[in-house]
Amino acid sequence: MTTKPRPNRAQQQTLRAFLKQYSQSASGLLKLSISLGTFNALLMIASCYLLANAVHQVMFEQANLQAVSPLLWPLAGLILVRALLVALSERVSNLAALKIKNVMRNTLLEKLSKLGPAYSEQKGHGATLNTLHNGVEALHQYYANYIPSVAYSALIPFVILVVIFPTDYKAGLIFLLTAPLIPFFMILVGHKAEQLNQERWQQLAVLGNYFFDRLQGLTQLKLFNATKRELNSISQISDDYRGATMGVLKVAFLSSFALEFLATISVALVAVIIGFRLFFGTLDFATGFVVLLLAPEFYLPLRQMGTHYHAKLEGISAAADMVEIINHSEADEHTGTSPLPLPLKDIKLTALSYHYPETNEGVTDINLTLPNTGLIAFVGESGSGKSTLFDCLLGFHHHANHAISINGQPLSDTALSDWHAQLAWIPQHATLFYRSVADNLRLAKPDACQDELIEAASKAGALEFINALPHGFDTLLGEQGEGLSGGQKQRIALARAFLKDAPVLLLDEPTAHLDSQTEQLINQAICEYAKNHLVLVIAHRLNTVKHADTLYVMQQGSIVESGRYKQLVNDAGLFAKLVSRGEAHA
Amino acid sequence: MHNFVRLLKLCKPHAGMLLLGAFLASLTVLANVGLLAISGWFLAAMAAAGIAGVQMNYFTPAGVIRFLAIVRTASRYGERMITHNATFLLLSEIRVKMFATLSRLNNVDLAMSRSADLVNRLQNDVDALDKFYLNVLLPIIVALFTIPIVMAFMAAYNADVALLCFISLMVIGVLLPALLSRKLHKEAHVETQLSAELRAELADTLKGARELAVYQAQNAQLTHCDSLSQQYNAQLYSRHKAVANSNGLSTLVIQLTMLASVFMIIPLVSLGTMKNVELAMLALFVLASFETVLTLPTAFIELPLTLSAAERLFVLEDNHSKANTQQNEIDNQSALGLTLSNVSYQYAGSTRKALNDINVSVCAASKVALVGASGSGKTTLVNLLTGLWPLQSGSLKLTTDEHSFELESMTPSARFKQLTIVAQQHHIFDGTLRENLLYAAPDATDEMLIQACEQAELSSWLNNLKAGLNTRLGIAGRKLSHGQSRRIAIAQAILRRGNLVILDEPTESLDNHTKYHLLNTLETVWADKTMLTITHDPAMLSRVDKVIWLEQGKIRAVATHAELLANEADYVELITRF
């Protein structure tokens, strides 16, 4: 549920255009579905004629069953075909919607991967995930039901008029005169009603949010000894909202009231007028009966369009989030394509600055020359810019790429994939995918053989527990590595990085307190790797900084101290202060 | 059936409103059926009279047609108002009941460890129950009420046609929906599972964006997502196909029934046993009679969903009636001590004990810290202390100078009067800052709230808020940083008057300056209370009387901070973080 405001009319225009543009991928299917539906309407008209004529002949020309069976048997045939058309048209429109959703989801994913991880992080993973999953699904009814219903509301009344006019223009005139009344009233009442209808959905959403928010915080309420009080509030608020919502509904239902009233009165009017024309003999019964049979069908598509109102609004508001992603400026995308000269020997950062839009956080004027091997640690309080610096090194902040040069070539000119080929990366909370352990490792090297997996796992100290899993390397990991401890997840991520054997390993150490045995194991493995590779680590643990070849201490986006552990402790600067918080009394 | 009856009982307080809605809905249906049938008869009769050149009273039928048109529209409007009002009444009834039930259960029964899961499921259940009246009950009542009336009228003209029509009504209203509903439910859980898999994969794609890029697995991942999305689509299409087929079949049955009745009536007209005008009337009457079951298919499709939602609710409710009865009230105004003896805890499905034979006591008014690596059992211990998780073995006692009370025997309200707990998973409610704070202390004045905010080092934040205490927080409100929401939790804790204060990482995400002031304040505010704090913050550890060090569910050491620093290298490593 959402409480964010529905788009206004002008925004809806743009969003509808956007949704239309995305229907291109299945426009053939949509057109087919609408054609089938319209063809069904044509057959419906034909069967009305057959029925009316049969009834007329039996009633007034003393025809018996045999005499009218040439009319009734084709009618049976038409009914069969119509049933098929109904089913087919619905299937095809659903198929179209499925196809469009798929294209939309792929487009969103591709765009997101081009924009880089920082974009979706800023928006919030939860929100982006909702757009990708529920948001895209919300388009289904829009394409499968609403779009065809719009087409039918124009096509079917038109077809009926075209058929009726040559048969009996006077009856046609009755339709023609009453028909515009409906859209007219719909616009008149609809304008106000749409606004009210929107309020109604929002009211419901607010009510739902309140209830589920309190459910989510149920433990909290228990801790506050507040459940009894909250029970009264829920009942009170439900009542208040009922009052408010009913007030809104009173008016909102008026629009459908007007529509129903017009349609019903029109049908009644048609019936009465035709009745009198039949009485005075100015019309034959067959025609009159056809008109009566068609009268409800004439208004039906318009009424049905109203029932898809919610589908329309849902689709349009879901689209708002998608437009935001898809139309996001291309300026944030990386454009370099030059191949990276190898082997890697020289990584240099010159006056690197990057700040997040709308905040002061980031890094300022970083100058660094990195060696080819060794353990380099970065320390600093949270918010000091360590993560931003690592994101820059990983090439995710495209605006900072010019300040990074690799083998003398700026990263901004380099194909990012070439640079990434030289890197391995382990975040604080490694992502384990919903696949087997082996497939999770192979993410880093798809063609790795079993021996390579075993070797990497063994280096990372993960072999023992992987073998102890129910199916060893083939054990399926649950969502987010469910069933593994934090230390085990960390070691699988480490094994993954070792498998790639990249010249540079970047690592954000977990702040969580792993048990001391695991910490030691991981520490040893990393120090070993650092002998032949470059390891850059955002350090949170004492042991890591003690072993580092160089330490960089960061504060407010800048590097303020650097050196080895002992030296920095003796210097009694910022680092010494950071350390002394732990060892003050040692 | 049992659950259906229980659901009906829930509706009882609003029976009048529900029935009035059903009556109006039936009236709408009957008016519509009557309108079409009489129109057919009127046309035929007028034509016949015109041809025969006889006079006829056309004022009455024309008047009836107009009257029915107005009745239909008016009752439709009334019906929608009444039924929606009834829906809201019932919705409030169900929500209050559900909340009351859940609030009485302990957290293991709620499986609060996966609360997102639970809330999602409850949300679907409540949504299903919300629609019980409108989508399930109303169509059933309308069908039960209108079908006999329509059939009686039809049978008065021709019993055979009525019988045929009745059979078709059952096919459309009961048989087809039942078949469809069976198919849908057989596949529903595959659909849910595929949807969850797709969601999980999309979540991984977003969360692991950096790793995917660095390991150059983005394209493979996109292909993987695409194939999952296709699988999900294929499953959805199977549902859409079933629905489309069912709609096609409905068209077929309705139209063929009309045709068959025409076939049956024509010989009667030819024989003269039936008036010719009745042919036109009956043909339309048969077509219109299907309006009585128009909404019944939805009812049959939703019924199993609603019933299984109701069952889950009732099961939770029945759980409660079996739950233990706690009755001990204690009235204590001074600091409480705490004694744990032989406390063990093992999570369902886990092979290892999260807590393994813990024996420790905390003196009244002392300040104690709890440290340990992740997975050492700290949070489990706090959960047990809340009393919301049932104790598996051992005993937990609150102690005063004279007495000791088993935590389990106390009523929740007595227990939470004594305990003030700031848990790791703190929930900020959707509402104003004032509302959030008042949850902790409903009788507090604005001055007290502001003072608590000041004590929790929130004053500079609060002073910058334009709306002050009226600032909206929570999902629809102002975003809070982790440090801010921690401090709001502390402000709430300060407002409460518990004699045993339990804090889970209170200084997390606070800068040094704020932390320093906060710790000073807390020391004063809770000087005469007992305080048990999970923390790894040296600044805080250096101020406590005693440190309890947990490792893998066992107590590794109980000593002062200084002793541990001096003797244990692992301890130094554990508490040093940058």
TrEMBL record, chain A:
It is a multi-pass membrane protein. Residues 32-314 form the ABC transmembrane type-1 domain. Keywords: ATP-binding, Membrane, Nucleotide-binding, Transmembrane, Transmembrane helix. The keyword Nuclease does not apply. InterPro entries: AAA+_ATPase, ABC1_TM_dom, ABC1_TM_sf, ABC_transporter-like_ATP-bd, ABC_transporter-like_CS, ABC_transptr_CydD, P-loop_NTPase, Type_1_exporter. It is found in: Cell membrane. One of its GO terms (molecular function) is ATP binding. Residues 347-581 form the ABC transporter domain. PANTHER family: ATP-BINDING CASSETTE SUB-FAMILY B (PTHR24221), COMPONENT LINKED WITH THE ASSEMBLY OF CYTOCHROME' TRANSPORT TRANSMEMBRANE ATP-BINDING PROTEIN ABC TRANSPORTER CYDD-RELATED (PTHR24221:SF590). Gene3D superfamilies: ABC transporter type 1, transmembrane domain, P-loop containing nucleotide triphosphate hydrolases. The chain crosses the membrane at residues 29-52, 72-89, 143-165, 171-190, 251-279, 285-302. Pfam families: ABC_membrane, ABC_tran. This is ATP-binding cassette, subfamily C, CydD. It comes from the Bacteria. It comes from Pseudoalteromonas lipolytica.
From TrEMBL, chain B:
Residues 338-577 form the ABC transporter domain. Keywords: ATP-binding, Membrane, Nucleotide-binding, Transmembrane, Transmembrane helix. The keyword Transport does not apply. It is found in: Cell membrane. SMART domains: AAA (SM00382). InterPro entries: AAA+_ATPase (IPR003593), ABC1_TM_dom (IPR011527), ABC1_TM_sf (IPR036640), ABC_CydC/D (IPR014223), ABC_transporter-like_ATP-bd (IPR003439), ABC_transporter-like_CS (IPR017871), P-loop_NTPase (IPR027417), Type_1_exporter (IPR039421). Residues 23-305 form the ABC transmembrane type-1 domain. The keyword Endoplasmic reticulum does not apply. Its main location: membrane. It holds the Pfam family ABC_membrane. GO terms for molecular function: ATP binding. The chain crosses the membrane at residues 41-71, 132-155, 161-180, 249-269. It is a multi-pass membrane protein. It comes from the Bacteria. PANTHER family: ATP-BINDING CASSETTE SUB-FAMILY B, TRANSPORT ATP-BINDING PROTEIN CYDC. NCBIfam families: CydC. This is ATP-binding cassette, subfamily C, CydC. It comes from Pseudoalteromonas lipolytica.
